[in-house]
Amino acid sequence: MKMILFFxxxxxxxxxxxxxxxSKLNLPHISTGDILREAITKKxxxxxxxxxxxxxxxxxxxxxxxxxxxxxxxxxxxxxGFILDGYPRSVHQAEVxxxxxxxxxxxxxxxxxxxxxxxIIVDRLSQRRMCKACGNIxxxxxxxxxxxxxxCGSIDTFIKRKDDxxxxxxxxxxxxxxxxxxxxxxxxxxxxxxxxxxxxxxxxITKKILEIVT
Length: 214
Ligand SMILES: [Zn+2]
Prior knowledge:
The chain has one domain (2-116, 177-213): 3-Layer(aba) Sandwich (Rossmann fold), CATH 3.40.50. The protein is α/β, with parallel strands linked by helices and 214 residues long. The chain is built from eight helices and eight strands; from the N terminus they run E-H-E-H-H-H-E-H-E-H-E-E-E-H-E-H. The strands form two sheets. Strands 2-3-1-4-8 form a five-stranded parallel β-sheet, with helices on both faces. Strands 6-5-7 form a three-stranded antiparallel β-sheet. The model has no long low-confidence stretch (mean pLDDT 89). Helix 4 (62-73) packs parallel to helix 5 (91-104) and helix 6 packs across helix 7 (166-189). A hairpin with a 5-residue loop joins strand 5 (128-131) and strand 6 (137-139). It is globular and about 50 Å long. Bound molecules: zinc ion (ZN). Zinc ion binds at residues 131, 133-134, 136, 149, 151-152, 154. Zinc ion (ZN) binds at residues 131, 133-134, 136, 149, 151-152, 154.
């Protein structure tokens, strides 16, 4: 089984890489963001609780995430492996994940850590917009002053999500730093963590990741 975990601050580009590697290796991409959004859409009690904390820029409580992740990783669609993105975010979650992994396979987790400077991340995220017509996420830095949505062609339909406001970003990065540094140490004690410079071009990062995992 190939169990790959993407680690890195919000905005570092791990979602993008997880999607690319997922399609190249034909493994399901398990994004906690997607799992949470689905729970929120369904308005399950887990979803409602999660939404309240996310709106404050805080992390979703461990017990909620544990339930959601356990269900997903034990699903038959993950029998050849999976790519996990955005989890674990605490040492407790890392320990819980390890017990789940031990049940489903003898293979080790491969941890890919994407690293970038805080200023670069804040700049990237504060330029992020969502097209309110189609939901596409774009970065104004790459639109070259055009306000046309590259996905649906609508003009001037971009809005800034609450998640991408600068104060929320800074709060998220602070929380990330505080709560996830211990997770990084946890994985550094195991010998299967690989660090990659997240400021490299997207295709170079993908190449490095594929060399590690294949
Ligand atoms: Zn659009």
